[in-house]
Amino acid sequence: MFAKLYDPLMKPLDIILIYKVRNRLLQKAYGEVLEIGSGTGLNFPHYPSAAEQITAIEPQRKLRDKSLPRAIRAGNSITVHEGIAEALPYPDNSFDTVVNTLVFCTIPEPEKAMKEIVRTVKPGGTVLFYEHVQPKNEVMRAVFNKATPLWKRICDGCHLNRDTETLIRNSPLEIVEKQASLNEIFIEITAKLPTEL
Fold first, then answer.
1. Which residues form the Methyltransferase type domain (predicted)?
2. Which CATH class is domain 2-192?
């Protein structure tokens, strides 16, 4: 059911905000790229030619199936695989870029996923995030906290109140650029893994 509704639900937000962010953020992707939680492939048309090989993982078969036509049309070399962020089936230091867009809200164990990202990105590599996060405004935070249990049931496990920015800041990644929108509910982060940990 969620796979059928995903694109229609995302379309208004994509038109207003996310399309431009995808286009801007993904221009930073290069080399061997891993996209975590690729969903229906909405990012695929935005990858630049510098993204030489894109490996996309998505745990839900119906979403993967819907993404395949976009992968073919995109023109880049994109392969889509079954996988979860908490147990990436790739060796250490495999990717130049790791892409995460609107995915950390649904990952069951985000701390494990972050460790896997750090493990699989190359030293000096780039990790790109576009996520909705727990609001800083106290009133909005209370509303999001109250709404999250119902929202998770409706939207396939999506947590409105995830503090993904703190998770990034507490990881070995170094934030080199951050932009926020819609009262800091959405954050766009470019991070690097230091060459020496």
1. 34-129
2. alpha beta
